[in-house]
Amino acid sequence: MSFNTYIPLFVVLSSFLPALIIFRLSEKQHTLRTLLNLSGIFITLVLVIWMFVGVYYGEHYEIRFALIQNLDISLRAGPFALFFTGLSSVLWFITTIYAIGYLEGSAHSSRFFGFFNLCITATIGIALSGNLITFLLFYEILTLSAYPLIIHRGTEESRLAGSRYLLYTLIGGALLLLGTVWLYTLTGTLEFTPKGFVQTILQEHSSALVIIFILLIAGFGVKAALFPLHGWLPQAMVAPAPVSALLHAVAVVKAGAFGIVRVVYEVYGLETAAFLGLTTPLAVIASITIIYGSLRALFQDNLKRRLAFSTISQVSYIILGIAIVGPIATTGGIIHLVHQGVMKITLFFGAGNFAETLGVYQVSQMNGIAKRMPWTMVSFTIGALGMIGIPPIAGFITKWYLGLGALESGQGWVIAVLAASSLLNAGYFLPILYRAWFLAPPKSWPDEHNFSKGETKLSLLWPPLITAFFALSFGLFAASPWSPLAWVHLITQREFF
Amino acid sequence: MYLKLVLATPWEVFLILLPILGGLFSFLLPKFNKAIGISTLILTLFFVVFIALKLRTQGAFYHLVGGWDAPLGINLYIDGLSLVMLGLTALIGVGASVYAGKYFTQTQSLWFWPIWLFLIAGINALFLSQDIFNFYVTLELIGLASAALTALSNTKEALTGAMRYLLVTLLGSLAYLLGVALLYHGFGSVDIAILSNTIESTPAAWAAMGLMSAGLLLKSALFPLHFWLPPAHASAPAPISAVLSALIIKASIYIQLRLWISLFFPLHNFYFEIFFAVLGSIAVLWGSVQALVQTRLKLLIAYSTVAQVGYLFLAFSLALGGVSVAWSALIYLMLSHALAKSALFLVAGNLLHFHGHDRIIDLDRIAQRLPLSTAAFALAGVSIIGLPLSGGFIGKWFLLEASLADNNWGITAVVLLGGLLAAGYIFKVLGFTFTKTTRTQKAQNIPLSMELVPLCLAIMAILTGFFATPLLSLIHIGNPFGNIGAAP
User: Fold this and answer.
1) Do the Cβ atoms of A178 and B427 come within 8 Å?
2) Residue A60 burial (CB count, 10 A)
3) pTM above 0.90?
4) What is the value of ipTM here, to two decimals?
5) Closest CA in chain B for residue A186
């Protein structure tokens, strides 16, 4: 075993060990806590970049431990695993800075940052999982470590939101467990394999395979907020803004979508899934979710709630992309993991800044807010336009690939879904932008804090600016060899097709 | 050289002798009772380690006390299964002792330590026994000692619970004893190994099996014979509740395993599997629902034990049906439940001590005020629910594997549903540890050791999930499940 073998483990530990130490810090040890937070992410980023270069040149990173007989915990860094690891660690870095600005000084910071780091550990573990059992383990750890963050405020409302979240995710976890054990008893393996591993039992157990597929998709679909399993997500917005960012862009919802991708491509294999007639229903459910989420978003006055319904809609683009059989649509789906992430996190950062600086929570309170907080609003605008799909922002690339992919595989109806959804997106984002930029601001804001320099705290202002910059440049430079899109091409070539 | 000495010493005898001596001395020297008690248990833990060494080198073995063979002498027998139970007893015993050292008042500890050490001697003797009469003797000893300990807090509630517990345990032992008498009369021995070669399907054998099983089922609180458990376990002092749930219940289940594997298996038929599966399923569902609706923490934890006993019998039913992986499930569920449940009861003791009550909705921000206890509760809860990565998860995984291998969809559904219900009652408690109550209540200090012990036990419940392969290979030394299904 060389150093390379252990890198995946080190990446997981680099947030886990700080988490353990942070739990034991007293509230006052502000500097040390920040230092631990940042050094963890720094080590992770270095290791992830190291692996990116290695994988590009064909290096193999894998470590495994026996859990029980014939069943290993395995961490493996392939192109797709790294893609998600890279996304979460970069966004985590930015969210950490934001969270420090947002929460330091308020009560129970050590608990908060401890669980925050545990969430990241779980997400990185999910990303690097080499088989379904490892995935399941980290997926459940993520469920558990997100719970204390959701009920962090300790109010009755947040307790109920937490309970709702657990009700959904634990039932999802149980379905997932059933599907996983069942698959294991039938095939004797759970290793993620390019083009899937279930073909061996396709003849004798095809009906069992269909049921297992439904179980697994339902299990992941809860976190990915697929309709009708999405009920927990809008309510969970009572959590602090960095947690919303974490839930919607970095970890929880993404982990669900990531899981569905794994199941379709590396457990079943796209061809087998299509052969069993499973991809079209999946595409239909994704489409319904897209339209439904957007429709609900139209009628929300609470900004975070509107963004939450928008997440429900947007995450299903990923699932739609992989359910349309073909490499181009796949590219569109996979790339949206990153695109939705950077855009949605920008929007939540913005919403958090409005709430923290001015006490603005409702869309109807946002008149003229751009005059008071121009830079936050610039980044919010980039995120919102990107969501609608306006070029050259990242969201456009997604829709372009999805549309092309749908045409390629002869599923023209998808174009209609995309068009309708874009209209709806415009319907709930443009009024916000109009209010913010063009209407006159009120005489006073609900709860204004004046931070001496600039429109808000610098640690709150920089994160949305950076992520908005990402959203813009991922679209603008999509064709460059360093863009996420280029890496997705690598993934589809090496792992999926 | 040293290894030889280690291997030659009859550590197993000391496991019984030492706690008895400790009990006597703690009675005679009340000033030092705490020191004597804790050090005795730490010593037994060491002895268990030595026995494990011995077992690994030479396999399962008999020890003839005083050199007399059966049927005259007392035979001690050790294989992987008894080793694990002894280890569990020593671990939880040390934990409960350290905790009890701070928990009891001066007067209470005068009685606590001697009885407690006798109880440990009884439990150890039970796990070392190899004949059905010794099982009876040790069962009776355990029953009396634990009834006395239950009454120790001396409240009206505790006395009622203890009295009911005493009657139940006596009734159970009596039924068991009748069965022993029938077998001895019919087949001329009480040694399990001898009996298993001679037993035949006669009416006497059937009657013996019925009586013995009924007595043991009553003691292990399988639904619908669980009625005595919640009041007894909830009203006892915390360290006693922990041991009652973690070890005493397991002791009678252990005897049933031994009997069914070697003795009753020739009598076995399909209906027994159904019987255990049905009662186990109802126990899981009923116990969990009852736990969910409780408003007091200790009762909630006690009803959770009712549910967890159900899981053990589900696994048992599958194992009887010949699914070998079900044995691993059974043992793993037993281990992880013992560790996790004792942690939960000790945490409940802390919370009760902290506020003077254990009403769940008035937990009042325990998460920030007693973070270690809350962490212990959460970690133990993870194992009880069977979430990864914990001992409970491995147990549940094996159990699901077994039920799917058997195409037993009923058990599969019960296992999943039971897990969700468990999540319901565990997180109901955890949710209220974050919220603030409107009621004003005073708070008392909790000594650090009383917080650390449950945390350590809970961490062990989690860690058993990481060491499944070595632990299982230890358990299978001497092929304890030989007669029914090969070891996986």
Assistant:
1) no
2) 11
3) yes
4) 0.89
5) B405
